[in-house]
Design a protein that fits this description.
By secondary structure, the chain is mainly α. The protein has helices at about 1-5, 10-15, 35-45; strands at about 20-25, 35.
């Protein structure tokens, strides 16, 4: 997945992201809701072209 973000390629990001993916923007205090994969990809489509570099730090999900 890191390579897809490093390439700043929305198609690659979509391909390597699970159908059940949930995205949480941190810090939670900014109030953005959790997004489904589709919502996240749609938001990325509008913002990804603004980036020249993108760093991803995967986190372990503690939910049951």
């Amino acid at each position: 997945m890191d390579e897809a973000y490093a390439a700043i390629d929305l198609g690659k990001i979509d391909m390597v992201t699970s159908k059940i993916y949930k995205h949480q923007t941190l810090p939670k205090s900014i109030g953005l809701p959790e997004e489904t994969k589709e919502e996240y990809i749609q938001r990325l489509a509008g913002t990804l072209p603004l980036f020249t570099k993108f760093e991803v730090c995967p986190m372990q999900d503690d939910r049951p």
